[in-house]
## 1
Amino acid sequence: MHKNNRQNRRRVRRGHQQNPWFRQHVSDERCNTVAQQSPQDSGRADDDEAPSTSSGTAGSSSAPDLPGYYFDPEKKRYFRLLPGHNNCNPLTKESIRHKEMESKRLQLLEEEDKQKKKIARMGFNASSLLQKNKLGFLNATSYCRLAHELRVSCMQRKKVQIQSSDPSALASDRFNLILADTNSDRLFTVNDVKVGGSKYGIISLRGLKTPSLKVHMHENLYFTNRKVNSVCWASLNHLDSHILLCLMGIAETPGCATLLPASLFVSSHPGERPGMLCSFRIPGAWSCAWSLNIQANNCFSTGLSRRVLVTNVVTGHRQSFGTSSDVLAQQFALMIKLWDLRTTKCIRQYEGHVNEYAYLPLHVHEEEGIVVAVGQDCYTRIWSFHDACLLRTIPSPHPTSKSDIPSVAFSSRLGGFRGAPGLLMAVQQDLYCFSYN
């Protein structure tokens, strides 16, 4: 065993001495540090400490990949990877990966600001699309769908000015979630407050018109220290009269589904009476959906572990339906249909989405023919619903963080029936609009 140790030390010294790049860019002190490492330390640095991107970075700068070291192409020298203990600014795999992701995000933001027109598909532009339509190569349906995709790929980012009766709250509260109503003229928001917990609000989108993008925030003093798992608009008195929230349990307080009247924030209907505010004890609810089907009137469903619970808010009657997995998404059908579930195979795959463990919503817009999702990498991706082509990848305007994943809402009529189509993105304290004509 001692003989093998001496041989390993000689191999390390010989490798460093025969490498002119290493002698040029690494100090004698760092060479001695590597030479004096035990074989166990060298192996651990090779297996656990080397980043997955170090070989690619080293290769691009013609620098060899050394176990336990990272080559910085800007400073043109090697740095030793540290295990992430209490040293000052340790160079670890996580810090290197975060630095590379931030550099990529800034590069994409710069490209988006410079590039006015983007191409969703190869050889895909307005002139060629119009020419193919005139020559009869595209029918009306395909032409409208592709024209819509072209407009989506050319959306430009603009910051929205938020007006509120409490400007100080706008500077400190951070957006956690936004959800547009049926007509896309209101946004329900969940904001993380600085003192802890969350509060709710409704943003009126009536003023969301170019060139001045202005909206008004109607806040409520309703605070909660619970995590919001899921939100949906509910139509009890009239269309989108309430908001349904699934709240996680905390300490000895069980989870629940809460029904909040939208009139608590602002009354959009003249003479509207205060709506019903109620709470249903439903522990462990991951998702919720409100029924617009007349055969399940005044009902909502909550997705739990391996079952769905349907509750009538007027009578309190409940029905439970078993499933083979946890229910993280659900939706009521407007008409009663029979579904053939025998063909359990993948029909279409939307590539590029990044999510390892978080519960992140997926927005399917059949009318616009697109699918929108925000990943854990804080990139917003838009696919064609028809053929799963990736139309757009939008970087976050703020540095990437697990606590600052953007929340988005897409509609062909932002601000109401005559509103402009586009995407709304909320991240940290800011609201952005990606609109097109």
## 2
Amino acid sequence: MGMPRFSSELKRGIMRGSSEVAYLGSILGLLAFLQAILPREIWYVLQEWVRKLLLWVSFYIRVDVYELDDNHSNEIYDAVKLHIASITADQYASARRLTISKAKGAVKPSFRPATNEQIVDTFQGVQFWWVHRVKPLQPKGSSPAYWGQSRSDEKRYFTLTLHRRYRQSLLPAYLDHIAENAKELDRQNRARKLYTNAQSDGRRPWEYVPFKHPATFKSMAIDDGLKRKIMDDLNAFKVGQSFYDRVGRAWKRGYLLYGPPGTGKSSLIAAIANFTDYDVYDLELTEVKSNAELRRLLMNVKNKSVIVIEDIDCSLELQNRGQLPKDVESAAEEELAASADQRKKKEKADRERSRVTLSGVLNFTDGLWSSIGDERILIFTTNHIDQLDPALLRSGRMDFHILMTYCSFQAFKVLASTYLLLDDHELFVEIEELLGAVQITPADVAEVFIQYKNKPDAALEKLIKELQARTSGGGD
């Protein structure tokens, strides 16, 4: 495989920079010879030193754009990555190395320049040279990485080379152009992401996969009045920046979804994300080891996002501080009965367990750290609202409490229309009467419909039998 080469345009630009560096032509010829005979590793080192020499004696400057800035995501890096991907299509034939990938569900593959592959961009008639670099932090003897790989032992960055005369006159406008182009590309090709902190390695706090949950408000089995109230609240929030600025509050909104299992809390979260077109950050508190780590995660959440903590009553010991999980006497008896070895194991487990406190979570929802970033929706879910501390439930933290309850007749009609394509049926009257007397979750109703998805009459009859069984005490 051939080695990366200097762009011919960059060579000519350097030679034009000053008559005093005409001798560099012979150096470049020597480099071409050395490139063919030297091992790749030595050539990379030599190339870097020569590049520095050429820049030092020329009228050209370099600007580095790192992926991370003090472990925080660099939005300029993301914008450059999008921009460069959009300008390389006509260079596939001449580029020496490319990477190719195809996301699940994508129509066609995506090409990108490989590491150290030079890309030329033109803005207002001026050429700008971009190179993507990967610098190993802890070399492990592995092969060179390519653009797009995610490794915690690498530092990834772009290097921009331009003539120094354009540093003040054109560079700011060029960077603005990249930012605007990246925004448009993101709107056109936006594939929203589902982030998780469960695999965090310290350098990249969040890992993500494409978010393609199909839930929408149209398919949600909740009452129409509640559905409209949630949608109106979301619409008001999305356009509310001036209001939040005027009243001096962080541009965020807190939702608490509570109710029995199977009532659609997770589906509602997906519907909210699809309605707002926000990315989703699924925050697993049990993987967070301290309040400081919780703050670091929050600092790396992008704007226009939904931050989710599901089953908050099970994630940590954040229950109502006025309630003890067991009486003191029973706890004392267990303490005396435990052996020394058991106590040591318990102490070790306690040390290894997440040390996030209720105070840390409150600061995350409504304290100083909640103002880091804009246009964020915080969603907590629980099956047992009575076990949560009142401090977590008040307005300003959880602004909108949404009870996800058992299946009502309105919710049933949504499910029948979605799963069975039925808007009306003679059995609806009997089902409405039974739903008024029996508790059944939308998930249980949906499961019946899935089993008989091609037999609407049989599905309704099966549901009636299930409801009647529960009426007589034979069901859950």
